[in-house]
Automatic annotation (TrEMBL):
Record carries keyword Secreted: yes
EC assignment: 5.3.2.1, 5.3.3.12
Compartments where found: Secreted
A cellular component term, taken from the record's GO annotations: extracellular space
UniProt record similarity statement: Belongs to the MIF family.
Protein name: L-dopachrome isomerase
Record field: catalytic activity: L-dopachrome = 5,6-dihydroxyindole-2-carboxylate; 3-phenylpyruvate = enol-phenylpyruvate
Lineage per the UniProt record: Eukaryota, Viridiplantae, Streptophyta, Embryophyta, Tracheophyta
GO function terms (MF aspect): cytokine activity; dopachrome isomerase activity; phenylpyruvate tautomerase activity
Record's keyword terms, sorted: Cytokine, Isomerase, Secreted
Record-linked InterPro entries: Macrophage_inhib_fac (IPR001398), Tautomerase/MIF_sf (IPR014347)
């Protein structure tokens, strides 16, 4: 299950949050090549955050997936999510950072069994 955790220091109202969740779900599904029904997006607004020494609008993301990611996919996904955040929240793409985790199926299954 691809999971994208997004954090921003901006407040996010319900309408904008819904739009971001929908757009990000479609983007992750399409770019990674997994069904939307497997994609989870979490959006956390008003998170105290400094980036490059300032508290100007910024965002951080973590994408966790069992396969489907790699250098070319990561670049495309990063720019697409940055574009969504710039369009919906006016966060400049230079103030967005995303970390990718490709996890193995076995380690994920063990976590779920606990």
């Amino acid at each position: 299950m691809p999971t994208l955790n997004l954090f921003t220091n901006l407040p996010v109202d319900a309408v904008v949050a819904s739009d971001i969740l929908k757009d990000a779900t479609k983007a992750v599904s399409k770019i990674i090549g997994k069904p939307e029904s497997y994609v989870m997006i979490l959006l956390n607004g008003s998170v105290p955050m400094a980036f490059a020494g300032t508290e100007e609008p910024a965002a951080y993301g973590e994408l966790i997936s069992i396969g489907g990611i790699g250098p070319s996919v990561n670049g495309k996904l990063s720019s697409t999510i940055a574009e969504i955040l710039e369009t919906k929240l006016s966060i400049d793409s230079s103030r967005f950072y995303i970390k990718f985790y490709d996890v193995e199926l076995q380690s994920t299954c063990r976590i779920l069994e606990m």
